[in-house]
């Protein structure tokens, strides 16, 4: 079942240690088949060097196992909640990458202070509220997804334009149209967090990029008028050729 998606999710998970985004088993990637209403996710607590594509677990959008001999990631209810509410996403990554966790531990957004950040995230990466005791005791992982969605709705943040969040005192979740893209966004988040940390140590000024610079860098990679790279909408016409 979903053999191609299993391979994609396996490949995405295996890229996490290569990119320095996980220590031990502290992370997971999933990918969804929207037509079937099923997603594939890393099994819980299995070392990356022991993983195989066939170890990936197929679950439904209620978080129930449909296929697989291993227990799915303990974060499965979070992934399921995000898939149910953020309808355009095709992959989700969760890590405990240290720079991202540093901002989560401080309960701080990662501010958009550089074009490195603005190329991928249209504004600050929000740090959503910490779960209260009742939320943790009742349905911790499901409520983790719920606080992310609730905070995006409260702030009016587009999850497609800002494809990541920090959960206070926990860590980063990122997403994208594919599992691979969700990992890419996780790495950009980590680099942006490190840049922001060092920048904030250097000044007490508001160092957010101005809106026009944010717009320029975000929209040259995204949307109908994007021109970055080789396959974007305007990439052929942006540069004159002789």
UniProtKB/TrEMBL annotation:
Group of enzyme by EC: isomerase
Keyword Transport: no
Listed InterPro entries: Aldolase_class_II_sugar_metab (IPR050197), Aldolase_II/adducin_N (IPR001303), Aldolase_II/adducin_N_sf (IPR036409)
Keyword Transit peptide listed: no
Entry superkingdom: Bacteria
Gene3D superfamilies registered for this protein in UniProt: Class II aldolase/adducin N-terminal domain
Signal peptide coordinates: none
Enzyme Commission number, as recorded: 5.1.3.4
NCBIfam families recorded: PRK08193.1
Family: Belongs to the aldolase class II family. AraD/FucA subfamily.
Residues of the Class II aldolase/adducin N-terminal domain: 7-197
Gene Ontology molecular function, alphabetical: L-ribulose-phosphate 4-epimerase activity
Catalytic activity: L-ribulose 5-phosphate = D-xylulose 5-phosphate
Protein name (database record): L-ribulose-5-phosphate 4-epimerase
Cofactor(s) named in the record: Zn(2+)
Keywords: Isomerase, Metal-binding, Zinc
